[in-house]
Every structure is written in C-alpha cells, then in structure tokens.
Design a protein that fits this description.
It is a single chain. This protein has 298 residues and is mostly helical. It folds into two domains: 53 residues, no CATH class; 224 residues, no CATH class. α1 packs across α2, α4 runs antiparallel to α13 and α10 crosses α12.
Length: 298
C-alpha cells in the first residue's frame, strides 16, 4: 500500500475543517501548523474524536482548544526538564560513589572496566564498549577527556565516566550490577534495588520524552512506575501508568526539599492556567492533586 501523499499547509487546514474542527482564525491555524506539524497537532486532538465517526471531531471542537493543550504540554516539559536534570545528576553521583567504594578502592582502581564485576555482562559491554566509546569520541575536545587520554591511556574513573553517560545508559549500568552493589546504592538513596531500578528506567524514559519534545498529555506511560503497595492502597485513584504517577516519583527522587517545592508550585500554576482545557483523567491527576503533590514534599 502506498503512503499518503504530502499535502500543503492550506490543504492541512482544510482537512481539519472537513473533519468538523471549528477553526475561527485561519491565519493563526496555518501558522501553528507551520510550526509544529499537522500530525503532531492532531495528537492533541485525540480526545475530541467522534466515537461514532472516528475520522471526524465532535461538534464544537475548537482549533484553539487543541492548541492550548499543546501549549500546556510544552510548558510542562519546560518545568519538568530541570528537575529531571537534578535527579540525573544525583543518580550519577550515587551510582559512581556506591560502586567505586565497593569495587575500586584497591589498585589499580579500575574494576568498573572488568566485566566479571557485573552480573549482566552483555548489557555492561554494550554500555562500556559501544556507548561510552561513542560519547568519548563525541566529546574528544573536552578537557577531561583529553586529560585522561594523555595521562591514563583513555581510562577514566567511574565518577568521570558517568559524566559522559545518558540517563538511559546510567539506568542500564545500575541494572547490570550485581545485587550487592545495587543494594548499597539503593540504601544510600533511601530505596530498595527493585524500586530504584524501576524508577531509573521510568525517569530515563520520561527524560527522553522531555528532551525530544515528546507528548506528555493523554499518553499511557510504560513501564508502570512503582509507587509502593501501601501508597496504592491508600490512593486507589492513582494509576501507575500515568503522568501524575511519574511526577510523584520524580518528586521522590529529587534530593532537596527546596527543589521539590519549586516543582510542585510550577506544576500547580501551569495546571491552573490551562484548567479550562485539560481533562484531568488524561494525565492521571486526581481532583485533589495539589494536596497529593504537597504530601510528597518531605
């Protein structure tokens, strides 16, 4: 089957109108489509599809309402990103410290280069042999890369290596470790290894969404995030595969109370600004979301 043929901006606009979307300002609508792509825009209109005629939108669906949802999503990504950075930096420090203190105190202090020190050797080799070498090449002009190439033949301590790793590879490195090292790191971070492994995986996925302008609104999140059985029993209206659940865990993994407070305040302000357009169940937010978020500031 042939792919759909490309259509012009004007044709895209007419297609939305043909499918029953109310477009009051054609100039604005065309400018929006030129900025963000028709396919992306219609992703924010999924909730407005007519159930009886899925190709069409429900009566009264306004272009501006869909655009506001996109703007909400955009603002939310800007809020979440710096706090994901905080969590990533904390994870780098804790993983490097925990493993190094367990395995690298004796000379030659390079046991993070020894596959036998990792349970999942295939995953470890993929990170160290492939991803790390690629990142070293991409950052070959960085002073710390030049220094270690000249003085240590390219070898680096783990606390240097983690500065070259993406959150995804950091998560994979933790998962590749033996249980003992995972437990040490998890204990230092106030968690269990099973929970921490899940949190790293989920937040790395969220990090990738945010970094690449992925849609946060009206999305099912995988894998489901671990919130704890007691929490889920007390909060049966919170679902582990929603944006709200991921935000709860983001708050739990932020080490500083001040940063947690900033994130909660920014989310509250943004949700309030767009509350006329948001369907709260599509992001997993309960009616008393403000109190639930505040409960995580400890």
């Amino acid at each position: 089957m042939d792919l759909k043929k490309p259509i012009s901006w004007d044709e895209q606009l007419q297609r939305l109108i043909f499918h029953k979307m109310d477009v009051a300002d054609h100039v604005l609508a065309k400018q929006v489509l030129e900025k963000i792509n028709y396919y992306r825009f219609t992703g924010y209109a999924l909730q407005f599809r007519d159930k009886e005629n899925p190709d069409d939108y429900m009566p009264g669906t306004k272009f501006e309402s869909v655009w506001h949802l996109h703007q909400f999503d955009d603002d939310l990504r800007r809020i979440i990103k710096p706090h994901l950075d905080i969590v990533e930096l904390h994870a780098r420090a804790q993983i490097a410290y925990g493993f190094s203190m367990e395995k690298c105190k004796d000379p030659p202090h390079d046991q993070h280069y020894e596959p036998s020190n990792f349970f999942n050797k295939e995953s470890y080799n993929g990170i160290i042999s492939s991803s790390l070498n690629r990142e070293k090449e991409n950052n070959k002009d960085a002073l710390f890369v030049i220094h270690h190439a000249a003085k240590y033949g390219g070898k680096m301590p783990l606390w240097v290596i983690v500065e070259l790793m993406s959150f995804t590879n950091l998560s994979k490195l933790y998962s590749a470790m033996y249980v003992h090292e995972q437990d040490v790191i998890a204990k230092n971070m106030g968690s269990t290894r099973k929970t921490l492994k899940n949190h790293f995986h989920c937040l790395a996925n969220l990090r990738n969404k945010v970094a690449h302008a992925g849609r946060l609104y009206n999305v099912t999140y995988n894998p489901p995030i671990m919130l704890g059985h007691n929490y889920l029993r007390r909060n049966p209206d919170i679902y582990a595969n929603t944006l709200f659940a991921y935000i709860i865990v983001l708050l739990r993994r932020i080490p500083d109370k001040t940063d947690k407070t900033k994130l909660v305040k920014a989310i509250e302000d943004t949700v309030s600004q767009y509350s006329d357009y948001i369907e709260f169940p599509l992001i997993g937010f309960p009616a008393d979301y403000k109190q639930r978020l505040c409960d995580e500031i400890k």
